[in-house]
Amino acid sequence: MATTGNGPLAGVRVVELAGIGPGPFAAMLLADLGADVVRVDRPGGPGLAIDPAYDLTNRNKRSVLIDLKAEDGPRRVLDLVERADILVEGYRPGVAERLGVGPDQCLARNPKLVYGRMTGWGQDGPLAHRAGHDIAYIAVTGTLGMIGKADEAPTVPANLVGDYAGGSLYLVVGVLAALQHARAHGEGQVVDAAIVDGAAHLATMIHGMLAAGGWQDRRAANLLDGGCPFYGTYETSDGQYMAVGALEQQFYDEFVRLLGIEGVAPARKDLARWEELRTAVTERFRTRTRAEWTAVFEGSDACVAPVLSMREASAHPHLAARGTFAEHGGITQPAPAPRFSRTPGSLRRPPALPGADTAEVARDWDVPELDPSPNTPSTEENDR
């Protein structure tokens, strides 16, 4: 199988110190875009229950087994680092240093290296050394508190907003920006990507609206948080849901016409009658099934769409036509994104199995000392 794709990152070498969550996803994105990503797994695995063969965040990568607590463990990783452009790690602050593969050790071997650090709390601050997960990070940034209904507990958006949007994507932006600097100036650096920073940054527009008096600091009271009756979800007669986003006047006009409430809907700008409008929309949607309403709004600019499950999504006509989902290795999965006209990303390899590629990497990266035999299992800290 090809070790690197023809994506825009073809030729870029990445060392990923195995962890969980946003670090592996960030490395997967780099691999999807053509980078040669070598994941350094530890004997015994990361402690997750998922079968490695189905861990899609390890697709397009290769894996080697190295016990960083073994006497020669750090040296073997540094041999890879010497030949790499980027390193990604997700340990708590100080752990990589204690293991002998911290920024100072790595940059001493490779001054042009971009050292990407993925944590929840960041490398400094009162909570830097505390354990945590996505939900805590988005909680303290105010992000979680703005999601959900006014009279209910905040809605947990899986781990998409924190781990992956506020974490992985900011790490990828950071390491690629630093790689550009390294190639232009010959000097590497450390990228401190903290989920709390990224999750807060995602709400930049909302903070501007809040400062201008155009956003209330409470749930379901605003234009984009479900408080607006023409921006939200509505149940259909078969217990499914439709999503409505008819914000602009012309889209709203088409929405109420196709919904069939054109003659009874109160003026959309009359906030005092928003609940009356919501009731009218709610009652109307409950008269037909999701499939029937989908057909009603098909081909319109009413900004209405069916709410699909994850298994349903890949069959949606638009997503199928674009190839938004692809099947590889018998698994239906999201295709690489974004898209490039000259250097497209690709699905080249199934999820890397721990240690399965050690000999191949030793050859391709010219590190003959990379021992293909596993060492005695040990446990390392990998909390973000």
Topology at a glance:
Blueprint: E1 13-17, H1 22-32, E2 36-41, E3 61-65, H2 73-81, E4 86-89, H3 95-99, H4 103-109, E5 114-119, H5 134-140, H6 160-185, E6 189-194, H7 195-202, H8 204-211, E7 231-235, E8 241-245, H9 249-259, H10 274-285, H11 290-297, E9 304-306, H12 310-313, H13 317-322, E10 325-328, E11 331-334, H14 358-364
Helix pairs in contact: 1-6, 5-6, 5-7, 6-7
Distance between the termini: 33 Å
Strand arrangement across the biggest beta sheet:
3-2-1-4-5-6
Largest sheet: 6 strands, parallel
Q: Using DSSP, what is the number of strands? A: 11
Helical fraction = 25-40%
Low-confidence stretches: 374-383
Q: Can you give the mean pLDDT?
A: 93
Q: What is the alpha-carbon Rg in Å?
A: 24 Å
The secondary-structure class comes to alpha/beta
Choose one word for the global shape: elongated
Name the helix and strand elements from N-terminus to C-terminus, one letter apiece: EHEEHEHHEHHEHHEEHHHEHHEEH
Number of helices: 14
Strand content: 5-15%
Question: How would you portray this structure in words?
Answer:
The protein has 14 helices and 11 strands. Helix content is 34%, strand content 14%. The chain is elongated and about 75 Å long. With 384 residues, the chain is an alpha/beta fold. The chain has a 6-stranded parallel sheet, with helices on both faces. The protein has a 3-stranded antiparallel sheet with strand order 7-8-9, covered by helices on one side.
In short:
This protein is α/β, with parallel strands linked by helices and 384 residues long. It is 34% helix and 14% strand.
Features:
6-stranded parallel β-sheet; 14 helices; 384 residues; alpha/beta; 11 strands; single chain
